[in-house]
């Protein structure tokens, strides 16, 4: 089971003069996308007992995502108010004292043996105590199973840039797979080109660094090689959840290829990486073609022309 641990929240997406509440959160979106693609998926994050908590549980159940490891909380669900400029999304987060933000390492459940990979990322890596809790989780499992991280950096959310940078450095050094967008790479290494920054991250420990570039497609930096995939051309509704869905495509494809394990990643092939890039970009194309983070089901992915 691929376990996803990180924020779920409600995206308040502009609609006319008002907002439409839609389930979201980077890691939640990845869990939903994995479940919809048919991968054996679990989710670990505090779920509020408020009505938005119920709203978040519905899609997880529909996508057959195992939520038995999710602690329940009397604190509120995080909200993200979204501004859209030509489909490009920006976020303002309301997470002070929320169910997710207040997760501590002591709240973490025992991780069962059936968990075969861990995916982390998003704004939950930024503040404490939840950021420290995720770090503790990674330390507990990383010797047994592969870890993928997508920091999905939201600069306005970061209050202590030095502490966050230090945390990302530790997490990237512990991770096997890293995904970064062009914006993430610019934030991390403003003096380098995206290519050079991604290649440099590869030297910090991960086996593969995935670099996404929106309509320019995606690349994988691996063992001295760069493997590229073109983006699928679609009419963009908004970019919410594109990277999150890409991550799920990558993980699902590596899982299907039987290489999503510590030993498996040691025998990665260019073909397996290409299949991962292709599934990631195809899945992301469907998500951007519709409002909010609404990842594709397996049949929708299969129906997308090559
Ligand atoms: O998690 C932070 C934000 O990023 C998204 O996941 C999109 O990538 C949104 O659903 C959420 O508001």
The major pleated sheet works out as: 8 strands, mixed
What letter string, H or E per element, gives the SSE order? EEEHEEHEEEEHEHEHHEEEHHHH
**Overall geometry:** globular
Show unreliable segments: none
CATH-level-2 architecture: 3-Layer(aba) Sandwich
CATH superfamily: Ribokinase
Category by helix and strand content: alpha/beta
- Binned strand content: 15-25%
Major β-sheet strand ordering: 4-1-9-10-11-12-13-14
Number of domains: 1
Mean pLDDT: 96
CATH class: Alpha Beta
CATH topology assignment: UDP-N-acetylmuramoyl-L-alanine:D-glutamate ligase
Rg, alpha carbons: 18 Å
End-to-end gap: 28 Å
Ligands: beta-D-fructofuranose
Task: Walk me through this protein's architecture.
Keywords: ATP-binding, Kinase, Nucleotide-binding, Transferase. The chain is an alpha/beta fold. It has one domain: UDP-N-acetylmuramoyl-L-alanine:D-glutamate ligase, CATH 3.40.1190.20. 36% of the residues lie in helices and 22% in strands. The protein contains 10 helices and 14 strands. The strands form 3 sheets. It has an 8-stranded mixed β-sheet, sandwiched between helices. A 4-stranded mixed β-sheet has the order 3-2-7-8. The chain is globular, with a radius of gyration of 18 Å. The mean pLDDT is 96.
């Amino acid at each position: 089971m691929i376990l996803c641990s990180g924020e779920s929240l409600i995206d308040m997406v502009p609609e006319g003069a008002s907002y439409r509440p839609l389930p979201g959160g980077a890691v939640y979106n990845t869990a939903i996308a994995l479940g919809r693609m048919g991968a054996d998926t679990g989710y670990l994050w505090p779920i509020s007992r408020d009505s938005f908590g119920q709203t978040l549980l519905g899609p997880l159940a529909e996508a057959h995502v195992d939520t038995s490891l999710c602690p329940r909380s009397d604190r509120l669900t995080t909200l993200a108010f979204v501004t859209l400029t030509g489909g490009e999304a920006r976020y303002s987060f309301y997470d002070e004292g929320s169910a997710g933000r207040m997760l501590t390492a002591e709240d973490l459940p025992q991780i069962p043996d059936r968990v075969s990979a861990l995916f982390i990322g998003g704004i939950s890596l930024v503040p404490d105590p939840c950021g420290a809790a995720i770090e503790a989780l990674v330390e507990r499992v990383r010797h047994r199973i592969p870890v993928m991280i997508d920091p999905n950096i939201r600069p306005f959310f970061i209050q202590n840039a030095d502490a966050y940078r230090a945390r990302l450095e530790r997490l990237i050094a512990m991770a096997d797979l890293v995904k970064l967008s062009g914006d993430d790479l610019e934030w991390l290494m403003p003096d380098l080109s995206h290519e050079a920054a991604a290649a440099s991250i590869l030297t910090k420990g991960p086996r593969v660094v995935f670099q996404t570039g929106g309509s320019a497609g995606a690349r994988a930096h691996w063992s001295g090689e760069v493997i590229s995939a073109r983006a699928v051309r679609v009419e963009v509704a908004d970019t919410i959840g594109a990277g999150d869905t890409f991550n799920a495509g990558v993980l699902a494809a590596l899982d299907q290829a039987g290489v999503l394990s510590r030993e498996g990643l040691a025998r990665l092939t260019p073909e397996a990486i290409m299949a991962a890039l292709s599934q990631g970009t195809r899945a992301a194309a469907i998500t951007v073609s519709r409002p909010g983070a609404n990842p594709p089901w397996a049949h929708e992915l299969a129906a997308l022309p090559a």
